[in-house]
Write a structure and sequence with these properties.
Shape: elongated
Strand order of the largest sheet: 14-15-17-18-19-20-21-22
Number of domains: 3
Radius of gyration: 29 Å
Number of strands: 23
Oligomer: single chain
Distance between the termini: 77 Å
CATH topology of the largest domain: TIM Barrel
Helix content: 40-55%
Bound molecules: ligand C2E, calcium ion
CATH architecture of the largest domain: Alpha-Beta Barrel
């Protein structure tokens, strides 16, 4: 750049005129840091033209008390050489004593002796209130909506990269919410430091971040996703605690003619697809996602049809559960299967949520319970200590007749309540803790046991256990997947076992597939194991042939 030719001042004036925001330059070579500011900025915030002393103190005194600390510590980060980039949104009082949202983006350069040379950047007036997320300091979902709608109106091409932290609950669970907040804050800052000027970062919901990219370049979103997920590939340490996280992400470019609502809906569908396909990846939006919506509607009709035809197409499979120490048979989990002519076998991961969504889970759930109890009756004759674990969706607990129904089933079969374990799968947050406790109490008072399923994912948590105690906790299989490499997963299992044993709760680990995984978990004092290593789900006859004819695994 031939800056000398036009003179620094001419260049500065030209930039001030062409940049959307106030251009600020701070000459750090001067003893007291000489700051150059545009005239209208000086007027708006009542600052002296060229301030040689105490500029910083004066500016900070105008910053909102809630934002002051963030501002100072972010600036410190830059001058203590941790990062060269300064990006922050904060409130400042203007000359009319109104709070104004500003965004500063600046860069610190060094001279040849590695001393700070120039700190320069742009301050933008965001002109928004109540649009900041207080945990991360990023703009929130309201700001996102406003900006996206504005871009749609102005016909400016944009795309949105949606990031969702996989199983963020593990982090909250292992440590606490405050620590979780710090993780969110660090991640927000990291993403923000990685985006260019044509993109802005928003915290949309709990563990969800959105990056709105204007005039996106080819592969821009992919590169950003790679940078962030590579950075988090290794374990991170914060306040002396270690954590690890992966991300599910989807990228979608806005197409003219789509409404804002439909665009956002498509993003949400995208994230759901990623979660179903195993998380930890970026999937670009495509119209297949919407076809999947059609499939869903069709499946609902086919399921309804099956129920009306005496549960045609439904069947139970059984997977063995073994004692962790002796590896002998403890019982089985009854797992629902469904097939139809058009789609063949459909996974319960797909159809159970559809049953739940439509309330068909009530009738199917009762059918499952009755069938499983019947099977249990036959197998208990051969193997008296046999226990049958039956999945019950939390939605079934809202049916006031369900507890009586379970009682009648067991009574009629004439088996001991002790042989039945009710596994509560919690796919949505249970706000009615009272109800949960009441149902748990009555189920346990009959003598059946309660297992809390998929522990560590979704909403089941140690906190919930305190309110509605269970007899068994089933740790989800995702903790086994990387157990050989990932010390977070093994420490999670250890902590859960230790805490549960203290209050007399037994622990079952799900998803053990290999001998090597079993070797790692064998020292963890678990009570029961369920996994492909000891058997896959099988039809009733095969289960009998494999495990009961010979008594034991
Ligand atoms: P879940 O209750 O967590 O069931 C365990 C799932 O883990 C089963 O998948 C089982 O096949 C699988 N699994 C067990 N060991 C291993 C292993 O070593 N490796 C791997 N990769 N997977 C293993 P499935 O049968 O596909 O069931 C999926 C989910 O569907 C169940 O998860 C449960 O949430 C739901 N579900 C199944 N049957 C019923 C039911 O009768 N009622 C309700 N409400 N939900 C059900
Ligand atoms: Ca289960
Ligand atoms: Ca489970």
């Amino acid at each position: 750049m031939n800056a000398e030719k036009w003179g620094a001042s001419g260049l500065y004036q030209a930039m001030c005129k062409s940049v959307d925001g106030y251009v600020v330059i701070c000459d750090c070579q001067k003893e007291n840091y000489k700051v150059t500011l545009p005239k209208d900025f000086i007027e708006e915030f009542e600052l002296p033209q060229e301030y040689e002393t105490k500029y910083f103190e004066l500016w900070v005194s105008r910053i909102h008390p809630e934002d002051k600390e963030r501002y100072i510590s972010s600036l410190k980060c830059v001058f203590e050489n941790k990062t060269q980039q300064f990006v922050l949104q904060y409130r400042v009082k203007n000359r009319n004593e109104n709070w104004v949202w500003l965004e500063s983006r600046a860069y610190l350069s060094y001279d040849e002796n590695q001393n700070p040379d120039m700190f320069a950047g742009v301050i933008r007036n965001l002109g928004r209130q109540n649009q900041l997320d207080h945990i991360t300091g990023l703009l929130n979902k309201y700001a996102f909506r406003e900006t996206a709608k504005q871009k749609i109106k102005e016909k400016i091409p944009f795309g949105v990269l949606l990031f969702n932290i996989d199983d963020f609950h593990h982090i909250n669970e292992l440590y606490d919410q405050t620590f979780g907040d710090n993780v969110l804050r660090t991640l927000g800052t990291y993403i923000q430091s990685r985006v260019d000027g044509n993109a802005s970062v928003y915290r949309l919901d709990g563990d969800e971040f959105g990056v709105l990219i204007m005039n996106p370049q080819e592969n821009e979103a992919e590169h950003l996703f790679e940078r962030v997920s590579n950075h988090y590939r290794t374990q991170k340490e914060l306040q002396g605690k270690r954590y690890y996280c992966t991300f599910s992400a989807t990228y979608h470019e806005y197409e003219e003619g789509t409404s804002y609502e439909d665009f956002v809906k498509a993003l949400k569908v995208g994230i759901n697809v990623v979660k179903r396909q195993g998380k930890n990846r970026l999937i670009n939006f495509n119209s297949e996602f919407l076809r999947y919506k059609e499939r869903e509607l069709e499946l609902i009709e086919l399921l309804r049809n099956s129920i009306e035809h005496d549960f045609e197409g439904f069947e139970l499979n059984f997977q063995p559960q073994v004692y962790a120490d002796t590896k002998t048979l403890k019982g089985a989990e009854a797992l629902l299967r469904w097939h139809c002519e058009k789609y063949g076998k459909v996974s319960p991961v797909e159809f159970v949520p559809l049953l739940e969504k439509t309330d068909m889970i009530q009738s199917v759930g009762k059918w499952v319970f009755q069938q499983a109890v019947e099977m249990c009756k036959r197998w208990v004759c051969l193997y008296p200590q046999f226990s049958m674990s039956i999945n019950v969706s939390y939605l079934q607990l809202f049916d006031p007749t369900f507890v009586n129904f379970m009682q009648t089933c067991v009574e009629e079969a004439g088996i001991d309540y002790q042989n039945i374990i009710v596994e509560i799968t919690e796919s949505k947050f249970i706000s009615d803790k009272e109800l949960l406790k009441r149902v748990f109490d009555s189920v346990r008072s009959m003598g059946m046991k309660i297992a809390m399923d998929d522990f560590g994912t979704g909403y089941s948590s140690l906190g919930l256990l305190k309110e509605a105690p269970a007899d068994i906790v089933k740790i989800d299989k995702i903790f086994v997947r990387n157990i050989k490499e990932n010390s977070f997963d093994s420490s999670f299992i250890r902590v859960v076992v230790e805490l549960c044993h203290k209050v007399g709760i037994k622990v079952c680990l799900e998803g053990v597939e290999e001998d090597e995984e079993m070797n790692v978990v064998s020292e963890m004092d678990l009570d029961f194991i369920q996994g492909y290593l000891y058997g896959k789900p099988e039809g009733a006859e095969k289960f009998y042939q494999l495990y009961l004819k010979t008594e034991g695994v």
